[in-house]
Design brief:
Length: 201
């Protein structure tokens, strides 16, 4: 729970800095979020054609949030250069390892997100978005080398779950949902990749 509050505070401070708040306003925001001992700083560079902003909220010189922006000409006025967010990285617990990586399309809506849930330096889930909404989430094995569970969504509700219970790279367990509620479960008993039995819930 403490980690969650710290993360919420971190995002709030970064948002304040990104919006162009004065140093006094940012400091006040930090105090309001219980982060009065942190000194947010921002460095900017250009890498591989992208503008990179690194936000550091403590004194270890390791960025807590990194944002990658793409520059493009204003369609209505070519003399004006605009920019859009294409990628964001977050180090939730300030250990120098990135815990969240989110990619964005040219409209600024999320495309894909890798999340390290247990903060061990390896991704635990990979989420995919369509029109800004979650459509699929993959749960990875402990070493992050294989997908062991895939969850599918539509209109914000889960519709199907597929699992590889014996980790042989084949789906052997299925869950189907109706209106967000579990409807039936299928199991592959003979390991041929097809359900042999179904159970209604």
């Amino acid at each position: 729970m403490k980690r969650l509050f710290a993360f919420v505070g971190l995002v709030a401070v970064v948002a304040a800095s990104a919006a162009g708040c004065s140093s006094d306003e940012a400091a006040k925001k930090g105090r309001d979020d219980g982060l009065q001992n942190l000194g947010p700083s921002l460095t900017t560079s250009k890498e591989d054609g992208l503008i990179v902003e690194r936000y550091t909220l403590d004194e270890d010189d390791k960025p807590d949030v990194v944002k990658y922006f793409e520059e493009y000409p204003d369609p209505d006025d070519k003399s004006i250069t605009k920019r859009r967010l294409r990628k964001k990285e977050v180090d939730v617990n300030s250990d120098g390892k990135i815990d969240i990586v989110r990619l964005y399309n040219k409209n600024g809506t999320p495309l894909k997100e890798r999340l390290d849930v247990d903060l061990d330096g390896k991704a635990d889930t990979v989420s995919y978005f369509g029109n800004g909404e979650l459509v699929k989430k993959e749960v990875l094995s402990e070493d992050a080398s294989e997908v062991v569970e895939t969850r599918y969504y539509a209109d914000g509700k889960i519709i199907r779950v597929e699992k590889d219970l014996n980790q042989d790279s084949k789906v052997d367990y299925w869950e189907f949902y109706e209106e967000g509620s579990l409807d039936r479960i299928g199991r592959d008993i003979d390991a041929d990749g097809r359900a042999d039995s179904w159970t209604r819930r």
